[in-house]
Structure formats: C-alpha cells, structure tokens
Amino acid sequence: MTTYVGESIPRNDGYDKVTGCGKFTADIYLPHMLYAKAVRSPYAHAKVLSIDTSKAEALHGVKAIITWENTKHIPFNTSATMVTTNPPEEPIRDQYIVTNEPLYIGDEVAAVAATSEAIAEQAVKLIRVEYEELPAVYDPLEAIKPEAVTLHPEIGKTEVNNACGVVVHIDVFQGDLEEHFKNCDHVVETDIELPRVKQCQMETHGAVADYKNGRLDVWCTTQTPHPTKMILAYALDMPESKVHVQNPPYVGGGFGVRIGISGKAEIIAAALAVEAHAPVKFIYTRAEDMLCSDTRHGGYLHCRLGADKNGKFMAMDTTAWLNTGAYATFGIELLGVCGACGTQGTYYIPANRYTGYPVYTNQETAGAFRGFGTPQGTAIVEAAVDKMAQVLGMDPIELRHLNTRREENPLGFWPFPVGSIGVDECLDRAALAIGWKEKRGRKQSGNIRRGVGIACGTHVSNAAPFCVDYNAIVMRLEQDGSLFVSSGIPEIGPGSTTALMQVACDLVGVPFESATMQFGDTAAGPFDIGSHATRTLYTVGYVMSCAAKKLRADIFGFASKMMEVPAEELDLKDGIVFGGGKEMTIKKLAYQAHLRGHQFIASECQIPPNSLPWFAQAAEVEVDMELGLVKVLKVAAAHDVGQVVNPVLCESQVEGGVAQGVGYATREEMTYVEGKGFYNDGFHKYMLPTADDICEIETILVESRDPYGVYGIKGIGECGVNPTLPAILSAVEDATGVRFEACPLVPGRVLSGLKKAGLVK
Amino acid sequence: MTTYVGESIPRNDGYDKVTGCGKFTADIYLPHMLYAKAVRSPYAHAKVLSIDTSKAEALHGVKAIITWENTKHIPFNTSATMVTTNPPEEPIRDQYIVTNEPLYIGDEVAAVAATSEAIAEQAVKLIRVEYEELPAVYDPLEAIKPEAVTLHPEIGKTEVNNACGVVVHIDVFQGDLEEHFKNCDHVVETDIELPRVKQCQMETHGAVADYKNGRLDVWCTTQTPHPTKMILAYALDMPESKVHVQNPPYVGGGFGVRIGISGKAEIIAAALAVEAHAPVKFIYTRAEDMLCSDTRHGGYLHCRLGADKNGKFMAMDTTAWLNTGAYATFGIELLGVCGACGTQGTYYIPANRYTGYPVYTNQETAGAFRGFGTPQGTAIVEAAVDKMAQVLGMDPIELRHLNTRREENPLGFWPFPVGSIGVDECLDRAALAIGWKEKRGRKQSGNIRRGVGIACGTHVSNAAPFCVDYNAIVMRLEQDGSLFVSSGIPEIGPGSTTALMQVACDLVGVPFESATMQFGDTAAGPFDIGSHATRTLYTVGYVMSCAAKKLRADIFGFASKMMEVPAEELDLKDGIVFGGGKEMTIKKLAYQAHLRGHQFIASECQIPPNSLPWFAQAAEVEVDMELGLVKVLKVAAAHDVGQVVNPVLCESQVEGGVAQGVGYATREEMTYVEGKGFYNDGFHKYMLPTADDICEIETILVESRDPYGVYGIKGIGECGVNPTLPAILSAVEDATGVRFEACPLVPGRVLSGLKKAGLVK
C-alpha cells in the first residue's frame, strides 16, 4: 500500500518554472565572467595548415584564445559512452578540445573568450585559418566502400571502411540462420531509409566554467553530471574529485542530446577558463545547437523475415547502416540497442541475427535521441511484420499476438530476467482505442483517404548491458525527521525529481511535503550515470529502495530503544513509527537521535536490474491524395509502465514521445547541402510539429507490475517515440495501399510514391 | 606510519585567499537581490507601543518591511546550543526574529529590504517607532538582586533573579566541602573581574537568503551550517530538509561569534526574503557587528583554595557571575565549561565545587568566543594557585606539578577517559623557554621592571558533554580513484580543511594532490555540529577514521576479486593497493569498479570521544612604573596537541590565541556608556593589538599521543588564548609585586594599582 506512488502530485519544479525564477545555465553570472565563441570549419573535411590569432589577440576585451597549439591532445568521447562487455572495453576516443583536422562543417578549430559576446564574435572573425580541403563522404553506404576516404585512421583498422565498429546480435538456438530460413514457408524482405532528426530541446547547449585553485566548477546543461565530470577530468588531465559539475539546477530538455557533454560547451568553456584565469560562459546559439551537436542516427535498414505457414516467425536477419557522422560518440551502443530492443526484443524468433554498422561520414555527429536506436529497429521490423501479414493474409494484430515474446522465451543478449510482458494487452487496448475492427482495411477511392495502422515493441528501463549503469545515493533524515535525498541525477524536464520523491517518501514512510531532493550536482550527490535510457525513475527508485531499507533499519534500531519495542515489530508510515501498541513521530525520534549524537543516514551504490517496458501504438491518418499531405488524426498509445507513479507526468512522457514520433514520420528532417552543410540552422527551417500539428493522443497506461523493480515500476521516458513512425507508415499503407520505405512522409515523397504506384498522375 | 600527518602542507585555501578570488558572503550577488537594514532600539529596555512604516513603504525601492506584526512568534536561540544532559533538555529560547520589547541598545525591532543599501538605510530612518522606556540593569551583580527588573519573566522563575540558569559542578569524593576546607593548613581567596571583549573577526556578519518554491537557500558567515539550518527551520516553521545553508565557501574568521546564526543576519535576511519574494542580502556594518552580536562573557569570579602544609590542594570553591547580556544564547553551556575546564580539570582536588551564574542584563548579548569559559575559569584558578604558592613560599611551577591531574585521578563531570596528560611537560618546557629559573623573582627597583609568570590548564577537544556533539560524513572515491569527502564542517580560517585532508588521505591511503573536500554546505555534507569547541580536526578526523575503515573494506573486497588476493592481506597506501606479492593502483581499481557498476562509498555518523588538550604558557613582561604601561615581551606557549597534523597551521592557531590573550590581558575592553550603549563601534575605538603590539611568541608543541582519538590528535583551536591572561598577571606581579584583580591592564588601572600599593605616587 502506497501513499504517494500512483498519485498525480503536482511537479515540485512547477512553481520555479511557471514564475520564471527557476535557474538555467544561461542565468548563471559570475564576477568577471567572459563569453566564448568558437571558430568553426567551413569545410566538411580539411587540414588546418595555420592559424593566425594575432589580430584577434590585439582586440580589446579578448582574454584567451585556444587552438590545437595550446590545448591538450588527449582524445576523448563527448558522450557518456562506457562500453561494458566482459571484459570491459574502453570507449572510442576520437575527439579533441579543438581539432586540427575538421571532419564536418562546423567542427571547432579554435575558440575565444572575451569580455562580451560581441567582442568574442568579432575576434572569431579576425582569426585567420588556412585550410587544405580534403575529400569528404556523406552517405553511410558510400562511406563503407573501400575506396572512400577513411576519416579516422587513428582508431585502427575496422572490418568495414569507416564503420567505427560492427555490432552483431545473434540468437540462433539450433542449427544456423540460413537453415532456418530454408525451412520457412514465407520470407519477406523490407528496406527503410530514415532521416536524421534533431532533438530540438528548448534550451540550447551551454556551460559556465570556473577554474581556480586547481578546481574546476562547471554549471551546464548536461543530462549526466557525473559522466560529464569524468569526461572533463579525462580531457583536461585533472583528478575527478577536483571537477565539480552541476545543473543550475534546471535543464531545458535533453532528449539525449547532452548525455556526456553538451555539444562541446563544457570542454571549450573549461579550456578557456583555464587559459583566461576567469570564468567563461559558452551558450550555443540555436544555429550552433542545430548544426554542431548530435542528431538522431539516420540511415538504412534492411530486414528479411521468415515464417511458417501459420505465421509463426522462424528466422529474421536485419542489417543497419546508420550515419554516425564525424565522431563515434554513442555509435556502438546505439547500434547495439537498435538491434537488441528493435529487432530481438519484441518477438520470439528461434533464429534472429542483427548486424549494425555505425558509419563515420563528414557530417554533424549523430548520437543519442529519445529511443536510442529502438525507433530505427522498430521501424524496420514492424514494416517486415506488416508485409508478412499481407503475404499470409492475416490480421497484423493477430500475427503479432502469435509471435510476441513470452516470459519463458530465451533472450540471448539479455543478462536480466525478462519480467512481466504487457505487449499483448497494449496491442489490444491500442487497437480498441483506435477502432481497429471498424476502420482497418476500409476500401476507399476518394481524394481524402483514411487508414489505421499499428506497431508495437519493447525498450529498456536503463542503459545496461549497453553502457555502464548504476546509481549511488545518500538518504538522510534531518534533525526534525524531514527526508533529504542526495542524488547525482538531474531534472531535465520530465518531473523525475517529483516522481522520485513520491517513491522515496513511500519507501521511507515519511510525508512528501517535508521531503527534499538534491539533484544534478556531483558535489552533493554520489555517482549516477545520469538521466537517459528511460532509466531515471526506474534505477534511482531501485537504489532508493536499497538505501531506504538501510535507513529504516537505522531508524528502527534507535526507535526500538526509545519505544521499548523490538525493532522487527516496528513500521514507519506517514511519518509515524509504530508497533507493539506504541507510536512516536519521526520528528520526535529524529530530534531525540540528534540529542544523542546520531543522524539517520544511509548511502547505497547499486546496479539496478533492467526490466523491459512494452508498448503498442495505433495511428489513424488521413491522406490527401492530390496534395500528398499526410495528416495524423489520432495516436492511441498503450504503454506497459509496470506501475504508474504519477499519472499526469507519465502521460506527459507518452504525449511528448508521440509528438516527436509524428514529426519523425511526417515532417522532420535535417537536410544536407553539399558544400554548405545542413540547411536547418533554426526552428524556422526545421519542420517541428507545433501544437496545431499534433493529433489527438489517447494514452493508455498498462500496469503489468514488474516483479524485479521497486513497486513494479518500469521505464517510460523514451518509449513514447519508439513505435509511432511504423504505426503511421502502416496507417498510410492502409489508407493508400502504398508502403513507404522512406521518411518523413512530406508531400513530395508521398506524391511521388503515389504516382509510382499509379494512384495519382 | 603516515605520509601527510605531521607535514606542513601549504593550506589549500591559500591560493583563493591570496589572489582574492576566494568567495565570501559579501561576494554573493543574485539577480534581483535586495539589501537589508535593521531598525534598532535606542533604549536598553523598552516596550514598542507602535510602529508606523507607512512612509518607508511609500519610498521607491522598498520591497519588504518586517516588524513584530508580520513575523512568526516562535522563540528561538540564536546560538547552536543544544543542552544535553540526561534526559536531554531544550535550549533556552528567548529571542524572536524582531522583538516588541527590546532588551538592549541595538536590539532589532524591524527590518527593511530595498533595492539598494542606501534606500534601505533611508527607509529605516522613515520608520517611526513609539517606545515606552522600561527600567534597565547592566551589571550581573546588580541584576541578581531580587529587586532588579526581571528581563525574561517568560522563561520561568529561576533560583537567582535574572540568572538564566545555575551551573554547578561538584567533585567531593568523601565528606563535604567545608569539612575539607577545615582540614586545610592554608586557605587563600581571590577575586577577578574580567572585561567583555569582542572577537573582531575580519568579516562582519552577513547572509544572503533566497526563498522560493518552499525552499530557503542561505549563504552566510556561520561557523555551523547544520545547526543554523535547524535554527532557521525552527524559527520559520519549515522542514529542515528545505533549508539549505552554505558558506560561500569561505568565512573570514569566527572565534565563536557565529556558532548558530551570525548576529541575526540569516534570520532577518530569510524573513525578508519570504516577505519580498526576492533574494535579500544583509551584511552587518562593523558597528552593528561590534554592538549587536555576541561578546565574550565578562563578569566576576571568586575562588577559595585550600591546601595542606606540603602544598597539596585539598579543597576549592569557585563562583562565577558572568554577564550574558540580553539573551541566553550559550550562557548555560559556557558557564559549564568555565567550571569544568577552568576549575575542575587541571588539578586534582579531592573536594572541588564550582557554581556559575549566567546573568541577564540589558546589554549586548555575550556568547561564544575562543576558549568558551575556560579563559575565565583559568584566570581565577591560576590566580589562586599563585597566591597559594606565595603563602607556602613555594615555586609556582613546583606547586603546580604537585597538584596537576594524573590519569588515574577521578574526574566527576567527564564521561570520557581522560587520556594522555601533557601538562607537566608543557609547564617545564614553557618555563625553560622563558628562562624561568634565571628571571623569576628578580629584585627590581627602577622605572622599567621585568617579570615572568606562568599559567597552565586544560580544555576540551569537542563540545560534549556540554552540547550535542557528533559528525556525519560521506567519503567516496571518484571513478579515477581520487578521494572526495563531503562534510558539513566549515572552513572559517584555521586551515582545517587542509589538515583534515591530510588525515583523510593517510586514513584512506591515497595521494593528497588528487583529494578534495566539500565543506560548509548542508546540501553537500550530512550533519555536522560545526567548527567550534576546538573540535574540527579532532572530531571530523575521528568520524573520517570510521568512514575510512568502511571505505577501505569496500575497496579491499573488490580488489580481492580483481587481484585474487584475500581481502585481509591487502593494504592501501599512496594510491597503491598491495598484498600477496601483487599490486594495483587505486586509479585502475576505481575505474574497473566503475565499469562493473560500483562506486566506493561510505557514510558514517559517530559521536567522537573527547580528549583533554593541555597547555602552559609562560610570559615575560616589562612594566613602566611611571606610565603604568605593561608591555608583554614574550610568551612561551607549550601545548599538548596529542599529535601535530600540520605544524605550521598548528603553530598559527597557538599564535592567534596568544595574540588574543595578550589583548585580553592588557588592552581590550568593551566599554559601556549608560544611555548610549557600548562605546566601541569600530576598530578605531577598540584597542585590538596590532602586529606591532604583539610580543615574541615561541610555540612548543608537545605530543602526548591521545590513546583514543585518531592518530593521537587532540584539539588546539581554542587553547592558545586560555592561559595567556593569568600568565601575564603573574608576570606583572613578579615585576611589580602587585597582583591585579581586574583586566585589562591598561595604564589607568595599572597606575592606580601601583599607587594603591604605594609603589608610585
């Protein structure tokens, strides 16, 4: 029985954000603070021959300039990647503070700190860089050709040119894959080409760095304060204990784009602060944010799926060639999740192979974005499943039910128990909400045609086994019994700290009103891998449950003496310790403990398990056959969240994800113009759906109660976006009869597809 | 064997302080910050009949005004007093945010927050307060008379009028005290009158408070962040978890004056911030600091000492009537320490009674100041011992040796083992350093006469059993093995955080260069009672030793698996784990642990023991008989510190204490002018010794190695000041033949004493 878990308690950062008094990185002002600007390469691939900074240095107000010449040459990875297989591997370290061989248009070759942004900007223009242009490659399928220029010869020879790694998952439980395919009655093949899309978080990347007395203090927009601390310490060759990273405390959205450092805001601000002996602020412009920080991985996927005559899947083979851009960042891990969650998780297939290539190109880097590979993997697999349903003449939902994973099915890559599986309930409830039975397969002939589609899938509730994933936490009662929780986890917008305090207060048994969480600060909270991977509530909740157990034991030990009741008979709920017919408030107990020299305190460090959250989304679309316009009317999003902690916050996560999925499927795309770079240097050139463009979203929360996590909770953060694109593609096919194999479904692409199919002239 | 303990490592706050980039409270600027000023009573005792704030409110820029009408009426104690006897008692709570019955000239009746200090000041002048003046009393001996006005009728009837309590220590081991006196061959009686003196810390009291979203953030000059958090939460009726108190991180000296809140800077800034919905800064002027915050307790002490014919002390009876001013603050605890350390600690006397009265008067409040009662107690007892030596015709050092405490002597009030006693060594080494044998008892007749004197004593290494005293701490290794220690302890100037990190690095076995301590912040560190009571290094070192044990066990458990060596065979020193013929760096181990989801972390909460530090100081003075000028030539200060951690820092503590002792004995005094208040509203009106006025100080560090504390450490912080005044009085007597029974020995008093003795005309 819980008091707070399950309640829509208003978010505790609401007041700060609504009144505008909540502090973000741009709000940080320090005495004598300087402002940074970067010198960025105009070439997609070039060698810096010389840099003349003399004119810039002479400019009044310029306090420091960094180039390749005066910065450390310790390669690092800007993401929080920490590949953990057995034995643990090191991340690919292929970036520098600033480079002498830029690999994309926008790559940093120098940076300036000056007394104002205007002066810094002027100084940037006064820096003369002489480049030698080098051959460039932009498409992953081009880049893997042996004759293509190799962008990172320093990371060693890889099997496939420019692939920064090859990720293979194989679940073949007997015989080999091709043998399984041979035994199939039906085999279908599908392709999909997916765009690069941008996170478009409201707050651009930013950092303020202050270095003095051997200690570096950084306020920034990162989603991962502790890993950011590690990256900065590594790249600057400092002890980690002397690098202090904190959110200020708020971050205006993340969606994955600042797992690790935020673009390069932190490291450049820090390097300039060291050089200038003064605090330095580096706030990315929207253009820098759009053009010089990670995107979602776009690229190509192919799937071959085989089934027996009843529709039982027997074999699947999927390959992904995704564009990781100029640097590896999360390339390996993301291609790993793409295969694991997107292709191996949802269905039990006796022989299932996945091969993923994260491919370097001379473009802006791709990294983490909500879903982290699962949207791509789900898109190709769900397309293949739809195609198989057509071949078999089966209802797509029926076919899915036939093949979805059961608890007892083996899952090769997964080192955890599978836990509860709510995917079938999600499918049925999403179908019901969209009106599947009435609407699917309507014969239509007019200009405006409607269709419904569905897609399902699974994801993770934390980053393991793809990344190191664990949390440490300190919980203590203050001297009046109020709960104080210290965690390194940040609040990047979802209301995680509210939901976490609901969990914490129920776990400890104290009132929510008097509890506080200190978050997003490496000095205040011990290690936490950060807010990403759908993990925040799930994993921090888990470690909280371990710490709360210790804390309660400490409380009951003391209370037992005060109350003269055996500790094992005591319980604590709503701030009252009771048992043996007696009770005492925690307020009184904590103060009595204080008078006797004791604070109730517990620290814990734990590797959480990982539970699979499940989902199915059904979409209804309307296609204008003449204009090629796809309008999404409704998405019914059913999500197995294990146990809802805060219904309003949970629904808002689903809604946000669906909105991004609608944009991904129908509108958004980073468009590359050779010689100029990406076209989309602002929201005015990037077709983010507005409130007007978003369809009705019906969120259905399924509670399968995970048997391993705390209170049955699973993750939700990334799930909303995962199946939206394939559900929409399926609905468009239902409306038009055309299966599109590339996104987004902008009018040009739709019209050309409809024409090709002979449906319009 | 230690690597860092014992070394004069340069203080880690040195760079910040020398370059001016270290941040203090006055350096804190927040957006939209307001500035506070207080309306202070011009009467020593009055009732506020009405306050008209209308004109002030109308002034442009005035944002909030607090008076008795719109503030909470929850009485509190501004000090960190938490009386702990068995059963625990509550502190005397006799103050309010602002008062409607001011009890001293300067007492706060209202406060203003405005957009500038100038406007706030102007607003203060526009507030019209109508008072009814009430009878006042200024001297403790007057105030205890039954006919004197009772200043705090609300705290209940006390045995003696205006005494906020009576503290009695009795150690009588058989029979009764008077019986023991009857058996004495010699009985002497002495009196002493001691002045109020001021801490004169460089940074005046100050606070910046920011209240929003139900949470209060306070940056301030307190020496005790966690107790300050408790006081603010209590007075503002908030949960403690929502009050965040931090030093910024530096504090410009404390000497006891800001144990608890800093004057009333924090509480007034906080109340105004709540009222104004904006951050408020309240920095005391030097005049406010001098006139409206705690002083050392002045007053009267009397001692009767009896000995047998051989000089063995048989009975002692001491009484103190000290002026605690308008409010109790630390009155009870300080009078307790005065008796315990000053009268009961140094000598073993079979029958020993002490009675202490902290007496309310209509003056600025007295509270904690380095030594906390021990200087007063030591002054009276050492004077009595000197007198006894004269009566017996014995050398004062010989007489002291005969009576100093031995480990086996019972000590009634002391709940801890006595530990090591280095007082005899201190006496001998101080005597040797001052040239006792050659110089004591010189017959002189000229105008300039020299003399030497000596005094000895003991103190505490923490606040127990007079106050609650304990520490919690969190120690963790970062992912590169660097040590990060979180403590609520502040750095108020002595270099405590440097010395503590020397201890921590030796305890854990890691390099000092890579270790960091987070201090003075209630959000970053768990409960710590603060930096006072000579306790910082001793008690935090102690709890560190407990945490380090846990941390090392955690490390060895992991290392055992990695290195395949049983945990019990492993050791860690200088960053290397070794044993069983193998070794591995802690850097590598911590990173491997990280990759496996583990951070080495330990939290601890412990009540430290309390060890008695010992000391003897010998002074040489020169008295100009014509001018009445006492010049201190040298103080040889021998201190039993158990074990020196950082010799330079340790010596600087002794030197600072001696300087304050020289001022106390010869120059400093707060002078009260009836109807006007204290005369000393700045350093120009307060005779603090300058560098020119300070004598040669020879510091002798005696290492008796406490068997109970970590590394044998005892406290040192307060000890330097404790015996200086009686040593100087003794030296002046040696020079002139006159025993002065009042201080400071300013020319007027000296001349009048010499005249009274017929030595000058």
Textual characterization of the structure:
- 2 copies of one chain form a homodimer.
- Chain A has 19 helices and 27 strands.
- The N and C termini of chain A lie far apart (63 Å).
- The interface between A and B is large, with 62 and 63 residues.
- Chains A, B: One of its GO terms (molecular function) is oxidoreductase activity.
- Chains A, B: This is Aldehyde oxidase/xanthine dehydrogenase a/b hammerhead domain-containing protein.
- Chains A, B: Pfam families: Ald_Xan_dh_C, MoCoBD_1, MoCoBD_2.
- Chains A, B: InterPro entries: Ald_Oxase/Xan_DH_a/b, Ald_Oxase/Xan_DH_a/b_sf, Ald_Oxase/xanthine_DH-like, AldOxase/xan_DH_MoCoBD1, AldOxase/xan_DH_MoCoBD2, AldOxase/xan_DH_Mopterin-bd_sf.
Output the CATH class name of the largest domain in chain A.
Alpha Beta
Largest chain interface and its two residue counts?
A-B, 62 and 63 residues
Q: How many helices of chain A in DSSP terms? A: 19
Q: Determine the oligomeric state from the structure.
A: homodimer
- Looking at CATH, which topology of the largest domain in chain A would you report? Aldehyde Oxidoreductase, domain 4
Count of individual domains of chain A: 4
Radius of gyration of chain A: 27 Å
Determine the mean pLDDT of chain A. 96
Q: Give the second-level CATH assignment, the architecture of the largest domain in chain A.
A: 2-Layer Sandwich
Shape of chain A: globular
At the fourth level of CATH, the homologous superfamily of the largest domain in chain A is Aldehyde oxidase/xanthine dehydrogenase, molybdopterin binding domain
Tell me the strand order in the biggest sheet of chain A: 3-4-1-11-8-9-10
> How is the main sheet of chain A built?
7 strands, mixed
Strand content of chain A: 15-25%
Range of helix content of chain A = 25-40%
Distance linking N and C termini of chain A: 63 Å
Number of strands of chain A: 27
Which ranges of chain A are low-confidence, i.e. pLDDT below 50, for 5 or more consecutive residues? none
Secondary structural class of chain A: alpha+beta
InterPro entries (chains A, B): Ald_Oxase/Xan_DH_a/b (IPR000674), Ald_Oxase/Xan_DH_a/b_sf (IPR036856), Ald_Oxase/xanthine_DH-like (IPR016208), AldOxase/xan_DH_MoCoBD1 (IPR008274), AldOxase/xan_DH_MoCoBD2 (IPR046867), AldOxase/xan_DH_Mopterin-bd_sf (IPR037165)
GO molecular function, one term (chains A, B): iron ion binding
Domain Aldehyde oxidase/xanthine dehydrogenase a/b hammerhead (chains A, B): 19-135
Protein name (chains A, B): Aldehyde oxidase/xanthine dehydrogenase a/b hammerhead domain-containing protein
